[in-house]
From TrEMBL:
Gene3D superfamilies: Citrate Synthase, domain 1, Cytochrome P450-Terp, domain 2. InterPro entries: Citrate_synth-like_lrg_a-sub (IPR016142), Citrate_synth-like_sm_a-sub (IPR016143), Citrate_synthase (IPR002020), Citrate_synthase_AS (IPR019810), Citrate_synthase_sf (IPR036969). This is Citrate synthase. GO terms for biological process: carbohydrate metabolic process; propionate catabolic process, 2-methylcitrate cycle; tricarboxylic acid cycle. One of its GO terms (molecular function) is citrate synthase activity. It is found in: Mitochondrion. It comes from Kazachstania africana (strain ATCC 22294 / BCRC 22015 / CBS 2517 / CECT 1963 / NBRC 1671 / NRRL Y-8276). The keyword Thylakoid does not apply. The gene is KAFR0B01850. NCBIfam families: PRK09569.1 (NF007128).
């Protein structure tokens, strides 16, 4: 079977020719206007960035290589296509994004899964990385630990080493970028497992790496989702629940990979990478951006928020109490986590797919008051946010549902939720980074303006 690298190599001549012709022919065509407001409002809506794998429509939501999420769910291979939600393997999405839209066969996805597994060298972090992570203060935020973990792994960067010793050139940058990216993605389950064990088990392993299993399975296994792990805080799950948890992980990791290029984690990875910074350093910057509460950290904030609200209202079915709780939050000038979006103007289809996971297992979730609250919130929060009148999108985003579903199965460490997000997010921005190198995109360097310069620009004819 041909490797992912072979597939990419074959695509390069045709794709670069198309790209270069397009640039040459249309380079001076104007496609957007920049206003003062866009400069002063986080460049919202500026069409100013090239990103190939994913696009975002405000109403329809995400497309991956022009496939909607539900098209991906029916087209990309998974291990359990006949079992409910057509949950595809994140490895299938990785192949799909890296090859600019080639749908892998199940055999290719499994081959990639195996490749990632082999890259972990028997499921072990390099000893020095493991030792340093073991010594981090156990209360250090897991996202900080993850960022440190990636920085520690950077000494294995082929790109950095070969750039330094002068054996790389512009035509071959992409090869080491791919190598580093796949090694980095392969290491994410090990980092996640290590960090989780730091949180709850004094750094001692909670489970084992299984080389014959897929990437998501191994994240679950390393955080202790298996019956043999005495020290796990996740216990007493039936076989069916264990299987569901792994499927939830596959679903989650498959749908969080990317969200066009402008989101903070993707954009930071791209920006830092544009200086020819290697994938470890670049994605570590992405992680640091993901750790902001308005971005990926909302995953943890939603869980904390639901738990707190649930303990302050008489029942998750009491919509009036939920409404009052929300108004109180807004009057304290706090945000409702999991609601709103910088680009979307509709319910996030990724949220809907997580909700479908719940609907397909209605008995499992019937007595979970937090999950009920998460669902009932969708009946109240959009109305409240609309009446509040500030937010441009009053609907739920992906973070609204994810964490509380993991919580249901026993993953109770709320601060850990964003680490799982980060495992997934590696896939999109790093696929783009490989193609940034293939296309030879230059260093990103927009022009900034001070108030005086802006004043001059608005008053000059
Ligand atoms: N609750 C309360 N107020 C909100 C919310 C919300 N969920 N969303 C937006 N607003 C406010 C926002 O703070 C701003 O207020 P002000 O004018 O006082 O600064 C106003 O509404 C206008 O904001 P928008 O233009 O609608 O949103 P913007 O593009 O600036 O920000 C988010 C987008 C996602 C940062 C914002 O909706 C938010 O803070 N949501 C809650 C946090 C969250 O769920 N983030 C996760 C996003 C998804 N992800 O995974 O990254
Ligand atoms: C994401 O997945 O990155 C979020 O929805 C935030 C964004 O798109 O800006």
């Amino acid at each position: 079977v041909r490797s992912l690298k072979d597939e990419i190599k074959e695509l390069i001549p045709q794709k670069t020719q198309q790209f270069n012709l397009f640039r040459k022919k249309f380079k001076d065509v104007k496609i957007d206007t920049i206003t003062v407001n866009s400069i002063l409002s986080g460049m919202r809506g500026n069409k100013s960035m090239f990103w190939q794998g994913t696009t975002l429509d405000p109403i329809e939501g995400i497309r991956f290589n022009n496939f909607t999420l539900s098209q991906c769910q029916t087209s990309l291979p998974g291990l359990n296509q006949n079992n409910h939600s057509n949950i595809f393997l994140p490895e299938s999405m990785l192949w799909f994004l890296m090859t600019g839209g080639k749908i892998p066969t199940l055999q290719q996805s499994l081959q990639l899964s195996n490749d990632l597994s082999e890259r972990t060298k028997n499921g072990n972090l390099p000893p020095n990385v493991n030792n340093i992570l073991s010594q981090l203060p156990k209360k250090m935020h897991p996202m900080t630990q993850l960022s440190i973990g990636l920085l520690l792994l950077q000494e294995n960067s082929f790109f950095q080493k070969n750039y330094e010793n002068g054996t790389l050139n512009k035509d071959t940058y992409w090869e080491d970028t791919l190598e580093d990216s796949l090694n980095l993605i392969a290491m994410m389950p090990l980092l996640a497992g290590k960090i989780y064990s730091n949180m709850i088990n004094e750094g001692k392993p909670l489970g084992q790496f299984n080389p014959s299993k897929d990437w998501s399975y191994n994240i679950c296994s390393l955080i202790g989702i298996n019956k043999n792990s005495d020290s796990s805080n996740i216990s007493n799950l039936s076989n069916r629940q264990l299987e569901d948890f792994v499927n939830l992980m596959r679903l989650y990791l498959g749908i969080h990979v990317d969200h066009e290029g402008g989101n903070v984690s993707a954009h930071s990875t791209h920006l830092v990478g544009s200086a020819l910074t290697d994938p470890y350093l670049s994605y570590s910057s992405g992680i640091n951006g993901l750790a902001g509460p308005l971005h990926g950290l909302a995953a943890q904030e939603v869980v904390r928020f639901l738990i707190e609200m649930n303990s302050n209202i008489s029942s998750p079915k009491n919509l009036l109490e939920i409404e009052n709780y929300l108004w109180n939050l807004l009057s304290c000038k706090r945000v409702i986590p999991g609601y709103g979006h910088a680009v979307l103007r509709n319910t996030d289809p990724r949220f809907t797919s997580l909700l479908n996971f719940v609907h397909e297992r209605s008995q499992e979730f019937a007595n979970d008051s937090h999950v009920q609250l998460m669902q009932n919130l969708t009946k109240v929060a959009p109305k409240v946010l609309t009446e509040h009148g500030k937010c441009q999108n009053p609907y739920p985003n992906v973070d609204s549902a994810s964490g509380i579903l993991f919580y249901h199965y026993g993953l109770k460490q709320t601060l850990f939720m964003t680490v799982i997000f980060a495992c997934s997010r590696a896939i999109g921005p790093l696929s783009q980074l490989v193609w940034d190198r293939i296309y030879g995109l230059p260093i990103e360097r927009p022009k900034s303006l001070d108030l005086n310069s802006l004043k001059k620009l608005v008053t000059s004819p």
